[in-house]
Amino acid sequence: MANNSDQSVVRLALLLGLFSTLGPFTIDMYLPAFPEIVEQFDSTASLVQFSLTACLLGLGVGQLVMGSLSDVYGRRNPLLISMAFYVASSLACAFSPNIGLLIAFRFVQGFAASAGIVISRAIARDLYSGNELTKFFSLLVLVGNLGPLAAPVAGSGMLSLTSWIGVFIALALLGTYLFSMTKWRLRETLPTAKRGPINFAFQLRSYGLLLKDRQFLGYMLAQGIMIAGVFAYVSGTPFIYQNIYGVSPTVFALLFGSNGISLIIGSQIVGRMAHRVSEQAFLLFGLGLALLASVAVLVVATVHGPLFSLVIPLFFFVAAIGITSTAAFPLAMEGQAHMAGSAAALLGVVPFLLGAVVAPLVGIAGEDTAVPLGLIILASSTTAMLAYFLLGRSGQGSTSNATADT
């Protein structure tokens, strides 16, 4: 792959990026419909937010399962099966008769969508390493981050034409397209000789070895805790922007989508400067930027500052996520060639599991305050910084025995 033309690299990044966008579209596209769903099911904000929690749990647990299966059965077949389940579960969400079934089907939908996230990253590690992996991953993130930018705008547009049901039908159509792309455009990147044994104990051992790797654990937690903070933002801003500041669903979608731009900016800075600035330096800078931005958000939320004073620090907080996630991924994946699927799964599962915990907490004080959002993202920034210094940075210059054993 290293000798392929730049054009073929971009085409591959576009293809894998499409699978990465499935997660953001599954999470974000129905966000502008939260108030409508509350009204239709005669439910509460926290219960509708729990449908997001269920999806995040599915995305997290699914990555553990699909990452391991892709190390055993290759990348294509697990992806094909998952896309078929995604289509079916999206249609089930669309026609759910009550909030309970919607929550259940959102878990299945998230589980199926997880394959697109974890397997696309495993394919990247199959093909690249070192600075080349950083550069390619930044391209993958560039395409994948178009999801958070486009999903709420697309959802808002759908809501102007139809109800929230149409949003899930559109997701089913997206899943159908990705199934076709998997079938006809994606080649297998994991040769049979490099696959793991069909052994459940082996898969558990792989995860055990990775979790004993102090440096991998540090990078995984630093990245995962930071992204969990974003899920607090994702869950809270539909109510904060629309209920507290009174913006329309269209304006909310534009404000929310603008942070997709900040994600892209952050990730592309890392990719463009990978040969001049180390991933370690970028990771530390991103963590520091997130900490400063989260302090500003908490202050604005406490004094109920104007909308622009909240939007600006949130923009920089999300940009910091683009920086930290792009820098942490290649650092964590280096040396994990024989367990790329399992390693990518762990890197993916932590943000979603933590996000599933924090998403409902944003609304715990009601729909008329943004203070819980400020507290949660400040806590995530601080904890991620501690994980980096206590685990990731302390492991520099040493090779984990656990990884070496593989």
Concise synopsis of the structure shown:
With 406 residues, the chain is an all-alpha fold. It has helices at 6-28, 34-40, 45-73, 76-94, 99-127, 130-144, 146-161, 164-185, 200-212, 214-244, 249-272, 279-303, 307-333, 340-358, 371-392, 401-405.
Kindly describe this structure.
The longest helix is centred in the middle third of the chain and has 31 residues, at 214-244. 80% of the residues lie in helices and 0% in strands. It is globular and about 55 Å long. The model is unreliable at 397-406 (pLDDT under 50). The protein has helices at residues 6-28, 34-40, 45-73, 76-94, 99-127, 130-144, 146-161, 164-185, 200-212, 214-244, 249-272, 279-303, 307-333, 340-358, 371-392, 401-405. The chain has 406 residues and is mainly α. The chain contains 16 helices and no strands. It has one domain (12-396): Up-down Bundle (Growth Hormone, Chain: A), CATH 1.20.1250. It is found in: Cell membrane.
Topology summary:
Blueprint lengths: L5 H23 L5 H7 L4 H29 L2 H19 L4 H29 L2 H15 L1 H16 L2 H22 L14 H13 L1 H31 L4 H24 L6 H25 L3 H27 L6 H19 L12 H22 L8 H5 L1
Q: Please tell me what the overall shape is.
A: globular
- Give a count of the beta strands, DSSP E runs of length 2 or more: 0
Task: Let me know the largest β-sheet.
Answer: none
* Structural Rg: 20 Å
CATH-assigned fold name: Growth Hormone, Chain: A
**The number of domains:** 1
Beta content comes to under 5%
| Estimated structural class | mainly alpha
